Amino acid sequence: MEQPHELTVEAPRVWDRPAVAVPVLVCLSLVGGRFASFSTEANLYTLGTGGALIWLGLSNRVPRRPAPYRLGAGAAWWALPVVVFGVFEGATFVLAAGDDFPTFSRLADPLLEDRLIRSAAWLAWLSAFWGLVRR
Amino acid sequence: MMRTLAIGGFLASLVLFAAVEWAARREGSRIPTLSDVCAYVMRYEVGSVPVGRIGLFGFWWWLGWHFLAR
User: Fold this and answer.
1) Per the UniProt record, which residue ranges are transmembrane (chain B) (predicted)?
2) Are residues B11 and B26 in the same domain?
3) CB-based contact B37 A121, cutoff 8 Å
4) pLDDT value of position B25
5) Same domain, yes or no, for B36 and B68?
6) In terms of domains, do B12 and B37 share one?
7) What values do phi and psi take at A62, rounded to 5?
8) B5 and B26: one domain?
């Protein structure tokens, strides 16, 4: 018997469930963490995974959570961390003082040489990307 | 000295990001979460071109490439 539309709930697709998405993201991150900076593999892997996620995000293949129609005045609070980060990134970039007054990238580079931290960074990047695709 | 200032500044901004997100997730908060802000930005379209979506995806892609491949 056919159910009224209001009473039916669309089941999430298999690959859209956390039980599938999380292990896939972890595996992709572990692979990404093996590639050193400036290597051809790292470039191709970043372009490949990012390109695939952009393709998913611009097509209608992934269900999206609804976006707010307007943001309240409270959204202005987000300017605070953005401005603090921007001021320091801008100052360190413009002064170009190397390790004496390093940019955020320069500080992060030695940390990202560790394979475990690199994989964690990959997981953070891919998870946030997947979150954006679904918004 | 200047190096400590830079590290302190970047750490402060990361703590502020976490603090605002924490405040946004409280019951009845009037601050939108970062996810909601991104979703709002991604709604922006020029004609039928999803400019906000393309821009945010492009920025995030570049960020990953910059830190993980360069």
Assistant:
1) 47-68
2) yes
3) no
4) 95
5) yes
6) no
7) -115, 130
8) yes
Residue A38 is predicted with a pLDDT of 87
Do B23 and B43 lie in a common domain? no
Q: Which of A105, A119, A126 is nearest to A51 (CA)?
A: A126
The string of pLDDT tens digits covering residues A87-100 is 999 999 999 888 88
Express each pLDDT in B3-41 by its tens digit.
Answer: 999 999 999 999 999 999 999 999 999 999 999 999 999
Residue B49 sits in which domain range?
32-70
Rounded CA-CA distance A53/A112 in Å is 23
Share of chain A above pLDDT 70, in %: 89
Overall number of domains in chain B: 2
Is residue B58 domain-shared with residue B68, that is, in the same domain? yes
User: A42 to chain B: which residues are within 8 Å by CB?
Assistant: 68-69
Is the separation of the CB atoms in B69 and A46 below 8 Å? yes
Do residues B42 and B65 share a domain? yes
User: The tokens of A98 are what?
Assistant: 């190397």
Is residue B3 within 8 A of residue A101, CB to CB? The reply is: yes
CB of B26 within 8 Å of any CB in chain A? no
Of the candidates A35, A118, A132, which has its C-beta nearest B60's C-beta?
A132
Q: CA B25 to CA A65: how far, in whole Å?
A: 17
Please report residues of B whose CB lies closer than 8 A to that of A94.
none
Q: What is the pLDDT of residue A10?
A: 57
Query: Does the structure show a pLDDT above 70 at A3?
Result: no
Same domain (yes/no): B50, B69: yes
